[in-house]
Amino acid sequence: MKKTYFLISIFILSICFFSCAIKQPNSKLNIEKCECTLDSASVDSVSLEQQELDHFYSLMAYAVVHKDWQINALEGRGYNIGAVLVDSAKYVVNWARNSVNIKMNGTQHGEIRVIQSYLDSVQSFSLKGFSIYTSLEPCAMCSGMMKLTNVYRTVYGQTDPAYGKALERLQLESRSCCRSGYSPYPRPVISDKSPDPISVEIDSAYANYKGKYIVDFLTTPEAEKLFQKASKMFQQYKIAKYVENQKYIDSAHKFYNLVGPS
Predict the structure, then answer these.
(1) In a domain, 65, yes or no
(2) How do residues 103-135 score in pLDDT, each as one tens digit?
(3) Short name of one Pfam family for this protein (predicted)?
(4) Cα–Cα distance, 156 to 109 (Å, whole number)
(5) Quick one: average pLDDT of 13-20?
(6) Domain containing 228 — which CATH number?
(7) Domain total in the chain
(8) What is the spatial distance between Cα 30 and Cα 177, in angstroms, rounded to a whole number?
């Protein structure tokens, strides 16, 4: 009889425990049903005129990298990744390349360097209204720097399957998922894939690459060929499709002529 009562008690306790687990907002059942959302600032309408500049400035980012191409990911300046900074008036005002090796500093990514060097030169805290065009999708470190300096938008060329979508993750609304969820990180930065065709070709080439690391892929002859193609396209892009963009294109070419080794 005692054994029967004991088994019944265990059964009742099990039912109560299971019922409580379903009601807990942190339970796996609730998390699986959750649909987390992105902050609305991660979506932006882009005019045809702006699409032309996105295409052009993305080609420029590739051209800046190719102008100082590295054949070994572990030696020389750093990785074949670079960025250009565009101010709120849509003019290019700075450029930078990844220089982690020459600086012996793992933080010296192209986006970090283009931000820091410009802010140092103008003695400012903010890049409000500025945009960054980068040859590779920004990592979490570069994305954090963009947010903290109030960058408006970034346009990236090559997609990074491993370290990409950092800005989107920072804009994730997860409070509805569970009790320990988070609101989107302050100062949203719009993140857009470049409309230029070279970026698609590079993504395709990397998808077929048999190596392990993206930085190694970026030293291959195939990658250099595509960066060289982008560089030629940029240098030959002299006439704007939309007349209002001509002044930006002319200015960018003059700026590019001053780009030297890192």
Answers:
(1) yes
(2) 999 999 999 999 999 999 999 999 999 999 999
(3) dCMP_cyt_deam_1
(4) 14
(5) 41
(6) 3.40.140.10
(7) 1
(8) 7
Domain assignment present for 91: yes
Domain containing 209 equals: 60-164+193-258
Q: Three-class SS of residue 104?
A: coil
pTM of the shown model: 0.84
Cα–Cα distance, 171 to 169 (Å, whole number): 5
